[in-house]
Write a structure and sequence with these properties.
Number of helices: 5
CATH class: Alpha Beta
Radius of gyration: 13 Å
Helix content: 25-40%
Mean pLDDT: 94
CATH architecture: 3-Layer(aba) Sandwich
Order of helices and strands: EHEHHEHEHEE
Structural class: alpha/beta
Shape: globular
Number of domains: 1
Largest sheet: 6 strands, mixed
CATH topology: Rossmann fold
Length: about 120
């Protein structure tokens, strides 16, 4: 029996290059920039829950919405790499998904300085 597919929603601030790299690796990926570049964070969260997608973002505001606002989520991967170029983000996301992908759904994860914390 195969495991359920992991689905992703890549935030605008992470970039289309990361979304495309994940797609090329065979993942089901939606990109906020393709849906609505002005989409508010709470709407991104709600869409991700509806579609059961893990949000990949650079926006720490998702932590506020989840932990302080009580918003449900299907998983959030917060990349703390604000000045990283696309290639560095792609490498980080591919490594995280490859090594920890099955642990990401329904969890809030933070990647910083080469380390991943899964809450």
């Amino acid at each position: 029996m195969s495991q359920p597919e992991i689905r992703f929603l890549v935030d605008l601030n992470v970039g289309a290059a990361v979304a495309e790299a994940l797609r090329q690796s065979g993942h089901d990926v939606s990109f906020v920039g393709d849906r609505d570049p002005r989409m508010h964070d709470v709407d991104i969260l709600r869409f991700a829950v509806q579609e059961q997608r893990i949000i990949i973002t650079l926006d720490i505001g998702f932590g506020e919405l989840v932990y302080h606002g009580g918003e449900p989520h299907a998983g959030v991967l917060l990349l703390r790499m604000p000045d990283a170029r696309a290639a560095a983000k792609i490498r980080a996301v591919e490594e995280i998904v490859g090594r920890y992908g099955r642990q990401l759904p329904q969890r809030f994860s933070v990647y910083r300085s080469g380390r991943l914390r899964i809450h």
